[in-house]
Amino acid sequence: MRIAALGEFGLIERIKRRVKTDRSVFKGIGDDCAVIRFNADKYLLMTADMLVEGVDFLRKDEPFLVGRKAMAVSASDIAACGGLPRYALVSLGMPKRSSVGLADGLLEGMRDIARKFGINIVGGDISRAHRLTLDVSMTGVVEKRCLALRGGARKGDMLFVSGALGGSIRGKHLKFTPRIKEARFLVTHFKVNSMIDISDGLLQDLGHIMKESGAGVVLYEELIPVSKAARRREEALYMGEDFELLFSLSQKEGTRLQRTNGNFTFIGNIVEKAEGLRLIDARGKKREVKPAGFTHF
Amino acid sequence: MRIAALGEFGLIERIKRRVKTDRSVFKGIGDDCAVIRFNADKYLLMTADMLVEGVDFLRKDEPFLVGRKAMAVSASDIAACGGLPRYALVSLGMPKRSSVGLADGLLEGMRDIARKFGINIVGGDISRAHRLTLDVSMTGVVEKRCLALRGGARKGDMLFVSGALGGSIRGKHLKFTPRIKEARFLVTHFKVNSMIDISDGLLQDLGHIMKESGAGVVLYEELIPVSKAARRREEALYMGEDFELLFSLSQKEGTRLQRTNGNFTFIGNIVEKAEGLRLIDARGKKREVKPAGFTHF
């Protein structure tokens, strides 16, 4: 059987079922970060993301932007759990005839994000590879009361996104700012019930919140903020690489959030699981949709 | 300028010079692990290693052994710092048409090492890639008094290796046991002044201890334990992938170690930096050699 038959998420599910962890692991495989018991007040967050030439970026892309993205993608996972990124390991697979300029550019891009968010680049590995490959693993810290996961959405929750969605592939995916500041504002001022970063498309990542929370969702199509870079509204639903936050709060907390100046948009509500995922258009017409978006296989 | 002109270690040095870290980082780029201040008694250790098809293993190699190696290589770095491995993130880059059997085999191999050493596989990433690529980042813990680094060798120290060296490429590199038990025995019973794992060949890794410690070395060629798999004595000096421990202790501690039953062999002494690296053969003849071995570029 090919992996394509199982799908990326089917494969992750398969691995998750086989892996056992000890009591020190609060949350293992299957969220934006692993969550490790650290001390009385805090958890450690751990995440890793691999970027491959021809998949996540193109050979012609500026090395600075590629390095920047590698660091930003992992930082975005830490943000999605409400934490602060602290340490990064960088594994670089580079073709044999690579120039020192390429390595310099990648590093400068990584340092750009690292400096902005107080991330220490503490080590990694350099290997020969056929195509440029970057894997950044990142460790962060989060106060226990601030931890946000995919599985905490409750019926009645208001659903929000940061920023605008769609069309990221036309530029933003190489230049986005990981939503650490926004996530920290949220988790320190509000009780966030569930959160994820949108890396594979709104509907697909919403599907993770639904699955982990055992919940359904109603989305108000007209409310979804569509990026200027998007060519069609569907891109805001299905296109990957937005790296915006998608999160839910209780009605009370959500109403309170709407009174702030943050760049957060109310887009829907958490409902019973049996109701599945529905879009309501401007005329009030409902249609059922499937969580779908970018997948590697 | 091509990376090859700078070399793998030249490139690491270049990166190290440009990267700044904050006070929480006890040791950043340039040792087997990064060392992070954790609490009053302990440090966190962090390391990452990337394995690439055609470089670190061949397409025909058993997936179980490839997965096993990916986990073992990172665990060996934790061992080299005297620590216990605790958490692993696994990034898998797999060709589009890979079989589920490949993923299963890799995972079983990783679980084999994880189970033996109490390592929690807590997350990672799955990506499409042109050639099979595995990056394992690992976090470990070490008591402050047990930390061993490359830079602590002192004049007069006795130099030891675990196991036997050379010929690893003919099988051992896919089946080796990371020397965690041995390292923990050493750091809990002895004062280890410096330690490294031999991944790129005895002389090259010895070169790292010399450089970081500002020291020279005299090696007794006849004492170096040569693996049965080695075809020539030189393989024990220059061939990579042994994943044995190379470490130094004071005369007093070294003499005490020699009275134990551990599989450790005395091979030389730390001397003044100005003496460089010298091999002494069975007839007492000295020759100066250069630290050299495997390099990716």
Structure description:
The structure is a homodimer of 297-residue chains. Chain A has eight helices and 13 strands. The model of chain A has no long low-confidence stretch (mean pLDDT 96). The first copy, chain A, has helices spanning 3-6, 8-18, 63-80, 100-117, 180-189, 202-213, 234-238, 251-258; strands spanning 25-27, 34-37, 42-52, 84-94, 120-128, 133-143, 158-162, 192-198, 216-220, 244-249, 264-271, 277-280, 286-288. Chain A is α+β, with helices and mostly antiparallel strands and 297 residues long. In chain A, helix 3 runs parallel beside helix 4 (100-117) and helix 3 packs parallel to helix 5. Chains A and B meet through helix 1, helix 2, strand 3, strand 4 and helix 4 of A and helix 1, helix 2, strand 3, strand 4 and helix 4 of B.
Q: Topology, pairings included?
A:
The structure is a homodimer of 297-residue chains.
Chain A: H1 3-6, H2 8-18, E1 25-27, E2 34-37, E3 42-52, H3 63-80, E4 84-94, H4 100-117, E5 120-128, E6 133-143, E7 158-162, H5 180-189, E8 192-198, H6 202-213, E9 216-220, H7 234-238, E10 244-249, H8 251-258, E11 264-271, E12 277-280, E13 286-288
Parallel strand pairs in A: 4-5, 9-12
Antiparallel strand pairs in A: 1-2, 2-3, 3-6, 4-6, 7-10, 7-11, 8-10, 9-11, 12-13
Helix pairs in contact in A: 3-4, 3-5
